[in-house]
Amino acid sequence: MSGDAASADPRGRTCGHQARQPAARLLAQEADACPREVAEDLVLVVSELVGNAVLHAAGPYALTLSLERGRAGTAVSDGTADLTGSHRDARRKEPGGPGGRGLKIVRALGADLFVSPSIRGRQVIAVLTW
Known about the structure:
Blueprint: H1 5-8, H2 10-29, H3 36-56, E1 62-68, E2 71-78, H4 102-108, E3 112-118, E4 121-129
Antiparallel strand pairs: 1-2, 2-4, 3-4
């Protein structure tokens, strides 16, 4: 794959950005249950996980958010049954090119990550606690 960072993954970047908006709205409505800093982190986690799903996995896709005192989580489901973590587009990524940092960002934010089978494929789950 060639091109600059802006054109390298427009589909994943756009979908990740679009997923941020409803997540941010929901968390703003539940401001008493989730500290602002955690809500901001969770919105970034949503963006990263949705972008990864669209870039690296087959559809259909689904986003689920859950919120309770002391814990917030998101699950992104896709149609890929592979739980090993390999990506179908990984072979096309250029060394040193954009990408490959999404899950590192999610972990750096303190999220616990899980991958589990779902009815139509798999779920990637991230949970933030405070």
